[in-house]
Structures are given as C-alpha cells and as structure tokens.
Specification:
Radius of gyration: 11 Å
Low-confidence stretches: none
Strand content: 5-15%
Order of helices and strands: EHEH
Number of helices: 2
Oligomer: single chain
Number of strands: 2
Distance between the termini: 33 Å
Mean pLDDT: 81
Length: 65
Amino acid sequence: MKQVIVITGASSGFGALAARRLADAGHTVYAGMRDTTGRNSAQVEAVKQFARSTMWTCVPNLVRT
C-alpha cells in the first residue's frame, strides 16, 4: 500500500537516504530541509538531479521560513 510520507531533515544522513528509498518504493515523499538557498543549496541540486534521473517531481522552496 502506497503512503504519503513527510520527512524533515532530508538534506543529509538518514533523512536523505530514507526519502530516496521510500520514493523509489513508490511512496509519495515530501522531503524538507532548511536553508535551501544557503548551506543546503548543494543538497537541493543533488535532489533535483536525482529527481530527473528517476522521474521524481522536485519542488524546491515550497515553503520558506
């Protein structure tokens, strides 16, 4: 059964790994990270590249705080 999953702290480590694996398994994953235009900008680019290679949809900066 496919689920909608929200993961915070998806810029690195377990959060990033979990987001990719769950999406690969067919779940809808909303993966959040802070400071997407600063310290995590490289991770945002990595997610975009991964999304293009696997047919994911990537929506960076959906919510800004």
